[in-house]
Write a sequence for this structure.
């Protein structure tokens, strides 16, 4: 279980980091939390020649929030920081929930929000709510920055949209709409340290009447190679008064959209069934919470 | 409970507690010796294959590599059961499970050793892989795993007690069911670790090992290395859990020793978790057909037990576990007629062996669930049925198991009362359920792997002015706490304080003989030996003390560090002063005590005929317990949440009640893992596909339910200090209690493990469809 020999760099500024990423290209791997990377190296799945540790670049870390504009989260921000951030809890509750369910305390202390999206595991926790919030990512390189919706950044199992010489540096989360709320949950065997069989986030916006659904996003994780944004669920509920009949219809629609596989954690059939359950429960929970806002 | 005890019955902090909590305990893997080299084992990528050729010349050429050994250099067979020993240090000629060791390397560091493994070239001729015991028996003509086992069966046993056929014919209620249990392992924290140091001058070998069985390891090393035992010393540093998985030698022990002898330098081998899975010796998956018959009043008349056990590649503890499963049907209920047909089958998987509560867990699952179902057939509470059939003190089973003392009924009663079982059972809303199960386990086992009357435990007590009291015994404290309870019992017997007793254990050179930490034997066994040893010391000190206080020696007692006259309590003197006088004139005081378990014959009492294997499971006494589980089933996801566990146990006199609670709580979480989460998944090619603690799901702290434990008032007058076991009995009721609770919640009886949300959801769906088709 030993790592291959590699050269280690620890840039201190964004410029240094982007310069290294640009020069070393595919021979390098970026070390953020290392909770996936080091395991892959130990298991000899990858053997990078260079590691670029971005933990010393303070510009890549931290959560900033401006009322009315939204939040910007540095890609090297630790999951535990999201878990305990009052802003994330107040404004982006589903992300707070997902951060609290990722791995173990030890893993959350090391792992980063950027790594969770870049690793692009279909069962990843944070991309699901981030996509539900309409998060965009900032991709930086020596030649400048570009922005991409997160759902377009994650391309599939362990595939992302980073080109050679590019680094994921920020997540931009829009300001939550008034009368909105979000919820996240998952289905797994245990209540901790679980690889989710299914996870899901719902972000709902209500009209002023507190009953009519104005906007809705439902995102499913672990039932497709990348976060799956439901097309049918908003079609069923948006513009309608929220009621259990529609919720049931929406839940079945979500299950129908899911494209799960069978693996050692669960069968496709089970995943599909509980997708409907999660959808039903989260739609209700998010609606109840939005009414309280 | 004996109210006169002052040291036994105290909830003292464990001897090993503070250093473990502070991270200061030294495990084998923490040890570094001068010039120490590092060993690694090359493992087979096939689960069943002939080894055509091993070429390690390139590995030897690699800078930093010191030596390579292969199986041909140490072909002597070892095994925990001498009659069935068929394992080797490294595979000889053939591999029989995926990741079996074929060669071992020693190098100047672990990284070099690991890299050298890739340079060892092994040529294999793959053979068909058998992963299922039924397929293994069926295809035995064509694929043979061991040459001496033509049917791919290690051993089978047929036992008959009384006349079950006649009894069944007269029964009012008969139930037949099939049960299967899953393939699980211990998941102890510390992987197998061995450090060997061979001195080329003296020819002396010392092995530090994470083992439960220093003595057995000692004998096996002697066989494999062809060295006399007197030239070998086994030392057990702190051990990070065993649960049976370290109850045999490990290939790490042999490979470290062989490599050290070859290079004349110490060699340390630490297993990866994947290697622990590969060589795990976990619990036998059992496929059981069980038939139980009751008379019109609900009394058990007969049990018919058929068990096919998936044993994996080698013998290990197999034959013992097999006969245990047969033995376990005779208690904790009165069974006048019984038949057992059992067989343990070879497959190309890691060998199954001993795991906490071995042999008991699988038949208990079947029987406790079936009695639950039969109570429903009769229309009475499972509690009533179990109370009615429960054994009492002095009971002797038809197989000659003798229960000198039991408070089993008190366990059932206490757990039922504290949980409100009778008020809740059958009356909770759909989705919520409560389930009851009982269990028992051996204590101080009478079966001996030695076919002799040799004492199984010897304790040397030493009293010196300088040293206070010191207890020597080669027993292994693997975290179960034997050092603590031995010190408490020695303190009680000598009339001094627990804090004043030093324990030297886990070393075959410094300690007197002990068979090992397994079969819940040590508290009982060491207790007997401690009493005998302490009496010798007390007898000598009484004479001196008597002279000092002015009374007859036989009028003296010793307690709270003082000698005093029973009749004139004012005639008293401090223990230390008497020791001073004794040692200053006569010298060091020692006492030696032994324990030999009673040798009960395994016979059918109705005929007086010997029954093969029926003496396994005999024990000088037995621990009993009852658990009641309350579950909440999520009807939409199938997920089972455990709300509460109520446990009541008869462990005789608790030596350290705090440790008993720890054992019980640990047992509950341990067995809950097998019930709901854990399972090694094996691919058709024999590879374990979830060989990590990431994918093999042990319960976490989040799954830990609320647990209410009660140590019922108990004292076994035939046992030293009234003690019984508490480390393996409490795992017995867990699985059936959960299963019965799930039945109470959703009306589905599960007969295979683990009971995953997916299975629950599927069963609920089938139930609904069935009810619909029946027009309910």
């Amino acid at each position: 279980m030993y790592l291959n020999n590699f050269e280690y760099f620890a840039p201190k500024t964004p410029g240094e980091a982007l310069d290294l990423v640009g020069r070393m290209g595919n021979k390098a791997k970026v070390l953020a939390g290392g909770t996936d990377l080091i395991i892959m190296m130990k298991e000899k799945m990858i053997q990078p020649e260079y590691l670029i540790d971005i933990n010393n670049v303070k510009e890549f870390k931290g959560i900033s929030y401006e009322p009315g504009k939204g939040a910007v989260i540095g890609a090297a921000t630790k999951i535990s920081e999201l878990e305990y951030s009052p802003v994330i809890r107040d404004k982006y509750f589903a992300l707070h929930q997902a951060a609290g369910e990722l791995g173990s305390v030890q893993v959350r202390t090391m792992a980063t929000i950027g790594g969770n999206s870049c690793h692009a595991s279909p069962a990843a926790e944070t991309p699901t709510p981030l996509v539900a919030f309409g998060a965009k990512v900032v991709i930086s390189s020596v030649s400048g920055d570009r922005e991409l919706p997160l759902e377009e950044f994650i391309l599939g199992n362990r595939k992302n949209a980073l080109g050679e010489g590019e680094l994921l540096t920020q997540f931009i989360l829009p300001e939550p709409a008034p009368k909105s709320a979000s919820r996240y949950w998952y289905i797994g065997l245990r209540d901790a340290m679980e690889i989710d069989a299914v996870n899901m986030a719902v972000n709902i916006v209500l009209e002023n009447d507190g009953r009519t659904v104005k906007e809705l996003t439902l995102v499913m994780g672990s039932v497709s190679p990348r976060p799956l944004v439901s097309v049918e669920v908003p079609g069923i509920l948006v513009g309608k008064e929220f009621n259990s009949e529609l919720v049931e219809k929406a839940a079945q629609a979500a299950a129908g959209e899911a494209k799960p596989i069978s693996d050692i954690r669960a069968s496709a059939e089970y995943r599909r069934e509980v997708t409907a359950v999660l959808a039903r429960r989260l739609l209700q929970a998010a609606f109840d919470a939005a009414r309280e806002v | 409970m004996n109210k006169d005890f002052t040291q036994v019955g105290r909830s003292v902090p464990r001897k090993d507690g503070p250093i473990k909590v502070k991270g200061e305990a030294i495990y084998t893997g923490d040890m570094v010796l001068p010039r120490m080299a590092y060993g690694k084992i090359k493992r087979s990528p096939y689960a069943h294959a002939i080894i055509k050729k091993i070429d390690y010349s390139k590995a030897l050429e690699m800078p930093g590599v010191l030596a390579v050994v292969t199986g041909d250099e140490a072909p002597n067979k070892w095994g925990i059961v001498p009659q069935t020993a068929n394992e080797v240090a490294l595979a000889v000629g053939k591999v029989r499970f995926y990741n079996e060791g074929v060669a071992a390397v020693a190098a100047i560091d672990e990284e070099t050793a690991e890299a050298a493994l890739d340079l060892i070239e092994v040529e294999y001729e793959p053979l068909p892989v058998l992963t299922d015991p039924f397929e293994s028996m069926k295809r035995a003509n064509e694929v043979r795993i061991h040459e001496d086992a033509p049917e791919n069966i290690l051993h089978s046993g047929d036992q008959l007690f009384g006349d079950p056929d006649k009894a069944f014919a007269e029964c009012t209620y008969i139930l037949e069911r099939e049960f299967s249990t899953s393939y699980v392992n211990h998941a102890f924290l510390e992987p197998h670790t061995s450090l060997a140091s061979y001195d080329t001058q003296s020819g002396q070998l010392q092995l530090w090992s994470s083992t439960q069985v220093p003595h057995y390891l000692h004998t096996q090393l002697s066989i494999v290395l062809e060295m006399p035992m007197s030239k070998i010393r086994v030392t057990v540093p702190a051990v990070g859990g065993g649960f049976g998985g370290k109850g045999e030698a490990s290939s790490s022990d042999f490979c470290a020793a062989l490599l050290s002898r070859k290079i004349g330098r110490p060699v340390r081998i630490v297993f990866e978790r994947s290697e622990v899975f590969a060589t795990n010796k976990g619990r036998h998956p059992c496929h059981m057909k069980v038939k139980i018959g009751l008379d019109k009043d609900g009394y058990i008349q007969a049990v018919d037990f058929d068990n096919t056990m998936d044993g994996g590649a080698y013998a290990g503890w197999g034959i013992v576990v097999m006969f245990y499963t047969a033995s376990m049907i005779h208690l904790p209920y009165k069974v006048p007629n019984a038949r057992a047909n059992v067989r343990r089958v070879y497959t190309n998987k890691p060998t199954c062996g001993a795991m906490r509560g071995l042999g008991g867990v699988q038949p208990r699952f079947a029987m406790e669930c079936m009695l639950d179902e039969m109570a429903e057939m009769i229309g009475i509470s499972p509690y009533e049925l179990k109370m009615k059939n429960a054994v009492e003190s002095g009971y002797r089973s038809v197989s000659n198991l003798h229960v000198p003392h039991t408070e089993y009924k008190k366990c059932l009663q206490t757990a039922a009362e504290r949980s409100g079982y009778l008020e809740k059972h059958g009356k909770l809303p759909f989705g919520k359920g409560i389930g009851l199960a009982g269990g028992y386990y051996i204590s101080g086992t009478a079966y001996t792997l030695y076919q002799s009357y040799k004492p199984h435990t010897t304790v040397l007590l030493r009293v010196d002015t300088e040293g206070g009291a010191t207890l020597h015994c080669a027993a292994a404290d693997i975290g179960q706490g034997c050092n603590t309870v031995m010190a408490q019992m020695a303190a009680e017997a000598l009339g001094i304080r627990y804090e004043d007793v030093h324990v030297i254990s886990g070393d075959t050179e410094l300690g007197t003989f002990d068979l090992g930490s397994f079969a819940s034997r040590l508290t009982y066994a060491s207790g007997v030996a401690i009493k005998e040893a302490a009496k010798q010391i007390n007898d000598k000190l009484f004479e001196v003390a008597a002279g000092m206080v002015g009374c007859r020696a036989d009028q003296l007692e010793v307690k709270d560090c003082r000698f005093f006259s029973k009749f004139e309590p004012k005639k008293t003197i401090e223990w230390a002063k008497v020791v001073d006088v004794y040692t200053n004139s006569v010298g060091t005081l020692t006492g030696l005590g032994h324990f030999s378990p009673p040798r009960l014959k395994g016979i059918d009492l109705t005929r007086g005929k010997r029954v093969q294997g029926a003496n396994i499971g005999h024990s000088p006494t037995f621990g009993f317990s009852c658990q009641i589980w309350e579950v909440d089933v999520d009807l939409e996801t199938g997920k089972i949440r455990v709300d509460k566990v109520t446990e009541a146990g008869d462990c005789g006199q608790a030596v350290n009640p705090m440790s008993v609670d720890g054992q019980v709580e640990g047992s509950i979480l341990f067995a809950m893992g097998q019930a709901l989460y854990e399972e090694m998944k094996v691919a058709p090619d024999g590879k374990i596909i979830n060989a990590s603690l990431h994918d093999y799901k042990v319960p976490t702290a989040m799954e830990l339910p609320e647990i209410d434990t009660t140590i019922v008032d108990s004292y076994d007058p035939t046992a030293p200090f009234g003690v019984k076991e508490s480390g393996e009995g409490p795992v017995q009721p867990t699985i059936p209690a959960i299963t019965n609770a799930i039945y109470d919640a959703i009306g589905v009886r599960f007969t295979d493990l683990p009971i995953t949300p997916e299975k629950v959801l599927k069963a609920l769906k089938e139930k609904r469809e069935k009810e619909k088709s029946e027009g309910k």
